[in-house]
Structures are given as structure tokens and as C-alpha cells.
TrEMBL record:
Pfam families (UniProt xref): DUF1918
InterPro entries hit by this protein: DUF1918
Region of interest (Disordered), residue spans: 36-64
UniProt name for this protein: DUF1918 domain-containing protein
Domain DUF1918, residue spans: 1-57
Ranges of Basic and acidic residues composition bias in the record: 55-64
Amino acid sequence: MRATVGDQLVQHGRVVGQHDKVGEIVEVMGHEGTPPYRVRFEDGHEGVCSPGPDTEIRHREMDH
């Protein structure tokens, strides 16, 4: 898993009815885009994440 600052980290809900948790990666702490990542979530909470199998990275669109 690789990410850059500005990408979205999406933690999918693990049980029925649980919503996905979406945050913006504000710092990549691993080597060459690897975890852990510092993430700012939609509710303003910020934390360090090492994504698991229920997580995806949505890469931001680059302007050309």
C-alpha cells in the first residue's frame, strides 16, 4: 500500500450499518509512501494509522 499527502484513506465499516470512515492523509511517515500515515478524519480527529485489509487508499486526482 502506497500513498501521498492529500490522498484519502477509507476505513470500510466491518459490520452491517457501520459507515465508512474517511480521512485525508496529512503526513506519510513510512519509506516511499508506505504506512504509517497521519490522517485527519472528517470529524476533525487526527491520528496515526497503519491500514489493515478493510482499508483503501483513494489517490487524489493530479492536475495535468
